[in-house]
Amino acid sequence: MNLKFKSATARLFMYFFTLAVVGTALFQIPIFYSSKQQIPLIDALFTTISAICVTGLSTVDMSVFSSAGFVLLMLLIEAGGFGLVAFFTIYLVFSSGKVSLINRNIIKDYFTEDAEVEAKGILFRILGITFSVQALGALFLAIFLRNSGEQNYIFYGIFLSISAFCNAGFSPYSDSLA
């Protein structure tokens, strides 16, 4: 069976569907939990979809996740947040074979000074800006968390920065950010 998804909607669906399946499957591996008890499949699916759709909802206490579990959450949040931006950019550039003058000017104003618009260049620029802002946020959060006595201040600073930048709303703390 040859599965070629030609429509933009089908490709976007397959991107998020694949992320959901892979994330849920990975959350079935015990290394992602702080104890030997893993969460039920439905909770793993809910948490994964919440991460890739950047809603930040979880049916389980976040303390069940190990550092590896938080890294997986960060990767899912990044993939979900960047997926829409990347897909929209590629769709915008290649939807009609040519970029309209209005869209070209929008892209030019926000992303590049060149009149020639290239999707790959724009995506790398978006990635660079994203990671720069997240790194700056992680630095500020790590300083704040260190001053408040948090032992894992660097790791939690990175996690919170990614979660905040992507508007995901996840917190590594059991009581959220209270």
Explain this structure.
- The protein starts with 7 loop residues before the first helix and ends in a 13-residue tail after the last helix.
- Helix 1 crosses helix 2, helix 3 (67-94) packs antiparallel against helix 5 and helix 5 crosses helix 6 (153-165).
- The protein has helices at 8-26, 41-52, 67-94, 101-110, 119-147, 153-165.
- The protein is flat and about 55 Å long.
- It has 178 residues and is an all-alpha fold.
- It is built from 6 helices and no strands.
- The protein has one domain.
In short:
With 178 residues, the protein is mainly α.
Q: How many helical stretches? A: 6
Oligomeric state of the chains in view: single chain
Question: In angstroms, what is the radius of gyration?
Answer: 19 Å
Share of helix, binned:
55-70%
Structural class, please? Answer: mainly alpha
- What's the β-strand tally? 0
N-to-C CA distance: 51 Å
Q: How much is the average pLDDT?
A: 82
Strand content: under 5%
How would a crystallographer describe the biggest sheet? none
Based on Cα principal axes, name the global outline: flat
Q: Can you tell me the number of structural domains?
A: 1
